[in-house]
Amino acid sequence: MTKRISVALLFLFLTTTSFAQNNYAKLDSLFALLESNNKFMGSVAISEGGKILYSKSVGVTDMYTRKRATVATKYRIGSISKMFTSAMIFKAVEEKKITLDQTIEAYFPSVPNAKKITISNLLNHRSGIYNITNSGDYWTYYTQPKTEAEMVAIIAKNKSDFEPDSKADYSNSNYILLSYILEKVYKKTYGEILTEKITKPLNLKNTYLGNRISLGKNECYSFSYKEEWVTEKETDPSIPIGAGAIVSNPTDLAIFIENLFAGKIISKKSLDQMTTIKDNYGMGIFQLPFDKRKGFGHTGGIDGFSSSLGYFPDSNVSVALTSNGNNFDNNQIMIALLSTYYAIPFEMPSFKTVALTEEELDKYLGNYASEELAMTIKVTRKADKLFAQATGQDEFPLDATKADTFEFLAAGIKIKFALADKQMTLLQGGKSYLFRKI
């Protein structure tokens, strides 16, 4: 649901090749290391052609019973829900209930530019509709049930960010509206449509529209790490619906995406439209590069849950991750899973840090600006720890790993200072950005 630069989860390009055997034991060691350092709780799976090659679950489902997670544990998958919603929209198109080029004024006349916005624009984030999760108001009501009328009113009160189809920008509002369109054309609830069109035909027994979290259904709570794991509040599912409220697990997600690309859910024509990338967006799907291969998938985040799902057609392989506690970079975990499948070496993380005095840390304080990213990062200190805060985003802690080098592992961020030159370099996602002190 939420979208922030610091938690963007995209696969990295790798160029190393190897002829080593798949080392699944190394993955076991990785997850043992992550869990023992309070870096990750969740489940993962690697699947090839419908056969699970590797699965692993670590962590607990709640902080009271401390029941261990298993392959049967279910997680909220956040924005991976959009892939399901998109597939159901294409089903509705194939059943001639709607068309991609029809505008939405008949459904939502109060939404700005409704007469210009098409269903296609909603699917590939080209509507210009303001993303409600970007508003500070969102965090005042996100745990409370909302009706369709209330949600449409919240979406409609904001002005358009841009003229429809003139550009693309991610907006959860698009998929909330698509969920309501599905309910209107099928005259059923979103959950009923999901069951009828996807989960029942594919026998996905662990996938459904979420409700209040129920441990009795093998669901789990989510957590954030603040010196210890702390239980997060629950977003009420009536708010995100098909933008982020589906519950699933890695095994079901692998079955879903493999069947999607096998033509078992929508036609090849529809899949081709869904996977056509324009300005970095497909229709409920992203392109995910790894090594020299091109994959497709989506990521998700809601409350303390995070998830990633990718499929690589040339190998008929899928990788899925669902997490209910994350203090590391999911992207690095996905790289480890894919590297293992393709027998490419990957480096185990090191969680060693160095202790610096308050006087030593004060040398790094200040505001740093970048022409490349058009943003400023403010570096501050609280007691014996540095924090960084980018323009318009939450602050995040920085751990010193060696002299002049700090990391925020949850987002895969590394910052290297060059004090003599009054600058710092931010590294994330295989890219580097230069910032100068101002």
Anisotropy-based shape:
globular
Determine the mean pLDDT.
Answer: 93
Quick one: CATH superfamily of the largest domain? DD-peptidase/beta-lactamase superfamily
- Unreliable spans are 3-20
Read across the widest sheet, the strand sequence of neighbours is 12-13-14-15-16-17-18-19
Radius of gyration: 22 Å
Strand content: 25-35%
Structural class: alpha+beta
Helix and strand sequence = HEEEHHHHHHEEEEHHEEEEHHEEEEEEEE
Give the helix tally: 11
CATH level-two architecture of the largest domain: 3-Layer(aba) Sandwich
Structure report:
Keywords: Hydrolase, Signal. GO terms for molecular function: hydrolase activity. This is Serine hydrolase. It holds the Pfam family Beta-lactamase. It comes from Flavobacterium rivulicola. By secondary structure, the protein is of the alpha+beta class. The protein has two domains: 337 residues, Beta-lactamase; 80 residues, Lipocalin (Beta Barrel). Helix content is 24%, strand content 26%. The chain is built from eleven helices and 19 strands. The chain has an eight-stranded antiparallel beta barrel with strand order 12-13-14-15-16-17-18-19. It has a six-stranded antiparallel β-sheet with strand order 2-1-11-10-9-8, sandwiched between helices. A three-stranded antiparallel β-sheet has the order 3-7-4. Helix 2 crosses helix 7. The chain is globular. It starts with 23 loop residues before the first helix and ends with a strand.
